[in-house]
Amino acid sequence: MKVRRRLNRNGVHVKKLLVIAATVAGVLLYRKVQESEARKVIWSNSTDTVD
């Protein structure tokens, strides 16, 4: 019985780490997309034709 409890606790820890890693990856990806969009806006504003 003690072995099962240990395995269950380790499984929970691994799941928590995976959730944290996925969250961090999602935040980093979101920031990268926002930065890319900001660069596109700046580039399009700076290359607009002058009337």
Description:
The longest helix is centred in the middle third of the chain and has 45 residues, at 2-46. With 51 residues, the chain is mainly alpha-helical. The protein has one helix spanning 2-46. It is rod-shaped. The relative contact order is 0.07.
Brief sketch in words of this structure:
This protein has one helix at 2-46. The protein is mostly helical and 51 residues long.
Tell me the number of strands.
Answer: 0
Q: What is the helical fraction, as a range of percent?
A: over 70%
The number of distinct helices, counting runs of at least 4 residues, comes to 1
- Morphology call: rod-shaped
Judged by helices, strands and strand pairing, the structural class is mainly alpha
Separation of the first and last Cα atoms: 79 Å
> What is the succession of H and E elements?
H
Whole-number average pLDDT? 85
- Major β-sheet, in short? none
The Cα radius of gyration reads 22 Å
* Uncertain segments: none
Strand proportion, as a percent range, falls in under 5%
Oligomer: single chain
What order do the helices and strands come in, and which of them pair?
Elements: H1 2-46
Features of the shown structure:
single chain, about 50 residues, mainly alpha, 1 helix
